[in-house]
Amino acid sequence: MKDLKNFLADLSEKEQSESGVQYKNALLQKEILAYCIRNEKVTIAELSQYTNTSVPKVNDVVSELLDYNLITDLGKEIIGVGRKPNFYGLNAEAGYFMSVEVHRHHVNLALINFKEEIVVLNENVPFQLQNTKTCFEELCSLIDSFLNAQHQYVPKIAGLGLTITGRVNHKTGYSYSFFNFHEEPLSKILEKRFGMPTYVENDTRAMAFGEYAKGCVGDEKNVLFLNLNEGIGMGIIIGGDLYSGKSGFAGEFGHLAIFNNEIICHCGKKGCLETEASGAAIVQQLHQAIRKGTSTILTEQECIDDIQVGHIVDAALKDDSLCIELLSAAGEKIGKGIALMLNLFNPELVIIGGELSRAGSLILLPILSSINKHSLNLVNTDTEFKFSRLGTKAGVIGVSLLLRNELLGID
Ligand SMILES: [Zn+2]
């Protein structure tokens, strides 16, 4: 039985073919698939109008897509008086994508179907991110184990999407901050290792795209997505497109040098927002406060060395005053950075995502009050603020969407 992988192989043959007819057919197939991706149920008449193509021609292409099992026949439905058109929709089981989200202290691995539904999700798999070959091998072993456990899906997995912190150029597949010790780009290394097409993207940009396509974004086209985690990143969507910059380095929000401090950031500079308000900085501030004798419920629950920002958020939600104060101070500083972005971008929507967003109003209120202090009133009243709806799933969904669009050559 044919599936997404057969379709992709034939598509690339048609696109390289000398024949204009084959090439046009590939374009129309992609256009129709893209429409089916955006719409739950479609009719031939609708597709004909959308693609400006005759009904018989659309019928042919729909038959081809049915033959590849990429779409299914949903049957007839009565609309209005007496009209009973036939509906078609994506077939969730046409193919699968594997998503790997690499964090500093854990990895999330997921299997996503063709309709972008999560089929399997292994969250918080223990992992310590280091820029070493051993660490890269450990990551590959985790992917191997995941694939072994999902062996029944493996023949239908069409590609691998991986997100990682730091500077990533998704076009070339190079990751510059981590695992950059091969001559070839990281995407090529993974592609050879796992035998499937691979898409590598910056973690925050993948989350932003996931949230944009499947999360809390409605009709907004100009959106900033904040990833408040161990580090601080920003995904920028302008006019409905994910903005990566010339080489994929856009959105280094955490490295805005807006503080006059002597703390050296991991980027090598001083005064970055990350040195004051990232999850890693908040953990450092907690350690300092504990050393000075401030009490917190965390010292009763956790070994001090094991405390991560997630524990601080949990403690704040349990009314721990030190953790509430630390989050409030961080929110104030993050708000100062967002104020700069509002003045520059005038976005319709700012989404607060990442681990710190779990703190809810404990982080949002200080952010908003700081924005009022630091940005132009006319500009900030134009912008709505929302929390991420996909939460920890934004990245695995986002990267598989980007991978799917790349494989199918659609936006
Ligand atoms: Zn920095």
UniProtKB/TrEMBL annotation:
PROSITE patterns: ROK. InterPro entries: ATPase_NBD, ROK, ROK_cs, WH-like_DNA-bd_sf, WH_DNA-bd_sf. Belongs to the ROK (NagC/XylR) family. This is N-acetylglucosamine repressor. The lineage of its organism: Bacteria, Pseudomonadati, Bacteroidota, Chitinophagia, Chitinophagales. The gene is nagC_1.
